[in-house]
Amino acid sequence: MELVDIHSHLLWGLDDGCLDAHETLEAARAMASVGFAELAPSPHAQERYAGGNPALCAARLDEARELVARVGLGLRLHRNAENPLDAGYLGRLARGAAVGLGESQRFALVEFPFADDVGDVESPIREVRSLGVLPIVAHPERCLAFARAGRASQAIHAGAALQLNIGSLIGRHGEMALALSGRFLGEGLYALGGTDLHGPHLAAEWLAQALEALEREAGRAQLERLMGHNPRRALAGEALE
Description:
Helix content is 41%, strand content 13%. By secondary structure, the chain is an alpha/beta fold. The longest helix is centred in the first third of the chain and has 17 residues, at 54-70. Strands 4-5-6-7-8 form a 5-stranded parallel β-sheet. A 3-stranded parallel β-sheet has the order 1-2-3.
């Protein structure tokens, strides 16, 4: 099975991810070594980062494509961004200036704050949908808002898909994320998985461990659905299953 990742900070110099082209290449090698064939790096689309500049992100994506091709990795890289689900993003989306996932741009990766227990997860999701985009909520298990009972189901009911950080299953993001990821996975709430890779350090080792944990906890069919089938469909703008 060829794995597909829709959440990483692989592109160098854009956010808190890879620092330079060497780190990008080493991280890409690590991902290829555990079976990834397609990647949609997702720079933080925030003003405090260079990732808030879509033109720079597009240029860096082209550079990364050339880099991995030059060394023969064979990875296919796609357009993407990790968008904070706030007024700034909604405004960019309304103006047609926000970056979505892949060429179709039908889906967009969005995130809620980590530490703020926002009172309402449904309204912003519905607003994104009203603007013609299907939101994929990144790593809900890391966000305090989703620690409240029923919030994850509310987000799905409002029209979002939930994306698991596979590293959460092995404790890379703390105790809350470990507990919530196991619960959400067991309840079948995730539609997609992702790595949220930020750099090459020990990447091959922890990625392999996280994929093994996902298969152990959910089974081979769910591994293929979350890390292959649905991410590939999202890139193509097709309905998730």
